[in-house]
Each structure stands twice: as structure tokens, then as C-alpha cells.
Amino acid sequence: MTESEKKAKASHSNSIIKNHMIWSMGAGFIPIPIADFFAVSAIQLDMIRQLSKVYEVNFKETEGKAVITALTGSGLARLGARAVKIIPGVGSMLGGITLAVLSGGSTYALGEVFKKHFETGGTFLDFDPSRLKKYYDEKFEKGKQMAREMEKTEKVKRKKAEEVITEVETKEESTESKAKDVVSQLKALNELKNDGVITEEEFAELKKKLFAAKL
Question: How far is residue 15's CA from residue 20's CA, in Å, rounded to a whole number?
Fold first, then answer.
């Protein structure tokens, strides 16, 4: 494999890991404790499947699931986050945020482990979870930090989007209000004209001033 091919595979792998990390974080907000666990596991398994294709490794689903379990474990933090989710109201939101970061960090770490293993010519047959557990733990800490930053960035984006939407809606309401006001005043002027209070010329002049003032 040439150096350019290695770089291309690494770049493709990084993209796969990042995308699945984001999807895992989204699954972390599922409000059903058991559902989020299976959702994240499925996303992680799909990531491993795609990484296998990149490095032309024969994918084995059973072994993939076993490795995920061996590296991630049940985890007291993850179990704690799911337990918090059961609490109504604020608890469910707090648990979702915590699990989103944990899920994202775990997915990133798994991706990095498989990427490193496949880059060195490894396959599912010689995958040793105990040998790579330390590397997983290191990447898990980095992944959690990345997930927190991504979460903060997403919150800022959502806040800006909400502000823009609010501004647009306010302008629309203001425009609608102005339109209704113009129609109301036109009706009043028309009644004055019909009642002979103002002339046709005065009506035309007042109508012109009314539109000029409202634009």
C-alpha cells in the first residue's frame, strides 16, 4: 500500500468515526433507557462494519459485538446516566446529556481502536481486547472531551437558529399587523368619503399619505 493510499484510508476512516460519533450522541437523547443502549450499540457495530470495508477486512458481526462489550463494558457511569433518565422532568434531560457525551466518547474510542488495529494489518481473528483496552481508555477520555465541545457548539448553533427564527416571526407579525392597520384605516377613510365628510381628492391624498407612512 502506497503512502497516498494509507492517507486516503485514514481520512475515510476519520470521517466514518466522526459521523458515527455524532449519531451516537443523538441516540443518547432517546428518552427510553434501554432503547438508547441498543441504538448506540447498533451504531457502533455499523461503524466497525464500515471500517472493515475501508481496510478490506472480513467483517464478523458476532466478533464485533463481543469486542464492543469487552471494551466498553457495562460501565457504572453509563448505567448511572440511564438510571437518571428514569427520573421525570429535569432528570430525563440531565441523563440524556450525560449519556450523549458518554456515547459519543465511547464510539470515538472504539473507532480509533479498530482503525489502529486494521492499519497494522490486524483482523478480527487476532483482535485482543485486553491488549487494546488501555488504548481504548485513553481515546475514551479524548472522545468525551470532543463530545462535550461538539455539544457546546451545537447548543450555540441551536440558540442562534432560535434567535433568527424569533426575529423572522416577529417581523412577520409586525408586517401582518401593519397590513391589518392599513386596511382598517382605508375602510375608515372610505366611509368618510361615502358619507361626504371628505372629497374624492382628499380621499386620494389621505390614502397616499397613509401608504407612505406605513412603508
Answer: 9
Q: What is the pLDDT of residues 99-155, one digit of tens each?
A: 788 889 999 999 999 999 999 999 999 999 889 999 999 999 999 999 999 888 877
Residue 25 Cα distances to 28, 39, 107, 140, 144, angstroms: 5, 10, 9, 14, 10
- Is the pTM of the predicted complex or chain greater than 0.85? no
DSSP 89: T
Task: Return d(Cα 202, Cα 199) in angstroms, integer.
Answer: 5
Confidence band, pLDDT 50/70/90 cuts, at residue 161: low
Q: Cell 386620494: give the residue.
A: 204
Distance CA 74, CA 77 (A): 9
Radius of gyration of the chain (CA): 30
Q: Tell me, what amino acid is at 139? A: K
Taking the alpha carbons of 54, 55, 56, 62 in that order, is the dihedral positive or negative? negative
- Is 160:168 a contact under the CB 8 Å cutoff? no
State the Cα–Cα distance between residues 103 and 125, nearest whole angstrom.
Answer: 26
Domain boundaries, the chain: 3-161, 166-214
